[in-house]
Design brief:
Radius of gyration: 21 Å
Shape: globular
Number of strands: 17
Structural class: alpha+beta
CATH topology: Jelly Rolls
Helix content: 10-25%
Strand content: 35-45%
Number of helices: 2
CATH architecture: Sandwich
Length: 207
């Protein structure tokens, strides 16, 4: 076997380092704990909404915001969005625009006990980003999900290991899409089909 010259070793190492730097790394989504304001709009909900999904509205652009879950949801108060499970607890929630995309989402998760939450941020292009965080029972669990480098978000899904009392103070940044009236039940059925398709896409990326 030919002996490798010692002078070639640094050259080879430099080439490998250059390749590693040049290899694209998908880093266009950021999920972080804390309240990190962007160019945000409050999400408003009317009093007494119930269903799955339920719909809010961005307070400046007037776009419909979809709150979807695996259970019946309630919006118990008017003003800034607060979403609860009809049975008083909630473990899963997806937030998206009915027709459109956005670049940031801020929310506050009020957990009944200490536990953890897993987020899946789905972009327009590229793979989803999944990240897990601790949840405290203090009622102050802010999270900020951001798309950068020209990327945009289609929806954000979270699943918690403990019961969530409510999800409040939702804010969406750089919302863009068609300004539509809250959809009728037939449209909500189509939305549900689309949500299932999005979950299927996420599972394929994971596989």
């Amino acid at each position: 076997m030919p002996r490798i010259s010692r002078t070639l070793v640094p050259v080879a190492m430099a080439a490998l380092a250059t390749f590693a730097i040049a290899t694209p790394v998908y880093a266009d989504l950021i999920i972080a704990s804390g309240n990190n304001p962007q160019v945000d709009e409050n999400v408003l909900l009317n009093t007494g909404l119930s269903g799955d999904p339920i719909f809010g509205t961005t307070n400046q652009t007037g776009l419909s915001v979809v709150f979807d879950s695996n259970e019946l949801l309630l919006a118990p108060s008017s003003g800034q969005a607060r979403v609860e499970g009809a049975d008083g607890t909630l473990t899963q929630l997806s937030i998206s625009l009915f027709t459109g995309t956005f670049t940031s989402l801020i929310l506050n998760i009020d957990a009944a006990t200490d536990g953890s939450v897993s987020f899946t941020a789905n972009p327009v292009s590229g793979p989803p980003l999944i990240a897990a965080f601790a949840l405290g029972a203090s009622g102050n669990n802010f999270f900020t999900i951001t798309a950068i480098n020209g990327e945009r978000l289609t929806n954000v899904l979270f699943t918690s290991t403990v019961n969530v009392t409510d999800v409040a103070q939702a804010r969406i940044g750089n919302a863009a899409g068609a300004n539509l009236i809250v959809p009728e039940p037939a449209s909500m059925l189509l939305l549900g089909v689309g949500f299932v398709g999005g979950v299927g896409r996420w599972r394929r990326h994971r596989g």
